[in-house]
Amino acid sequence: HTQSAPLAAALAAAAQIMVCGLVVLFAGAVAAGNSWSFQTFLDGDWDLERVRGEELTRARYSLRPVRGKLEGTYFEYEDGRQVDDESSRSNVLQVQVDFLDGEGRTGSFNLAKAAAGAPEQGPDFQPVFDFEFGERHSGAMWFSESKWLGVHGGLIQFAVVGPDAFVLTHATAYTDQSSVAVKLTSWSATRAASSRAAGGSAKRSLLLRWGWYLLAAIALVAYRATKSKQA
């Protein structure tokens, strides 16, 4: 019984360390979910696809931080051609994403026609939709729904469905033989391989970052418990 007392104390300490470690990891995971930012998410290069009938259209967004905003370009290119082939590009636009809150979840998406050369006054950006993201499934997905402010009107749903993927859907109503119908146009997007290599896949979970320290602490306590039993 004399030898079992230190062992019991050591095991109790190990259990406390494990519980505290799990609490820290859980709290960190919750904090990470609460800190999600559309501004951080959208930063980088994105490959988009849209299918209409049998026609596939490809596009690319390239966005970078500039003075608290995201700025960059958008263009479409022919299927079967390389994204870097400038001769196959069409509908080239300049993009500016403004943010109205410190969390980077609310703001406006603005487009301007790409001007040749370097205009003195800069691009004439026009807002095409506003956004205000809310979480779904405890932060696993984020959604924003708002009006399309460009030609044809309608509604826009921007759905962030993963750390490297989103779906942008434009819904418009039209009259078809005296009845009202809805037309849906959807762009699916994944983060380009270059952006993932630069930072997207380098983000590790809290468990991967700190789990080894927790296991090391438990192993140390177990070692001490063994030594106490042998004494």
Describe this structure in words.
This protein is α+β, with helices and mostly antiparallel strands. Helix content is 30%, strand content 43%. It has four helices and eleven strands. The protein has helices at 4-34, 38-42, 193-200, 206-230; strands spanning 44-52, 55-66, 69-77, 89-99, 106-113, 126-132, 134-136, 141-147, 155-162, 165-176, 179-191. The protein has an eleven-stranded antiparallel sheet. A hairpin with a 2-residue loop joins strand 1 (44-52) and strand 2. Helix 1 runs antiparallel to helix 4. The radius of gyration is 26 Å and the shape is globular. The two termini are 13 Å apart.
Cα end-to-end separation: 13 Å
Shape: globular
Largest β-sheet summary: 11 strands, antiparallel
Q: What is the count of DSSP helices, taking H or I runs of 4+ residues?
A: 4
Bin the strand percentage: 35-45%
Kindly summarize this structure in a few lines.
The protein has about 230 residues and is α+β, with helices and mostly antiparallel strands.
Q: What is the strand and helix layout of this fold?
A:
Blueprint: H1 4-34, H2 38-42, E1 44-52, E2 55-66, E3 69-77, E4 89-99, E5 106-113, E6 126-132, E7 134-136, E8 141-147, E9 155-162, E10 165-176, E11 179-191, H3 193-200, H4 206-230
Antiparallel strand pairs: 1-2, 1-11, 2-3, 3-4, 4-5, 5-6, 7-8, 8-9, 9-10, 10-11
Helix pairs in contact: 1-4
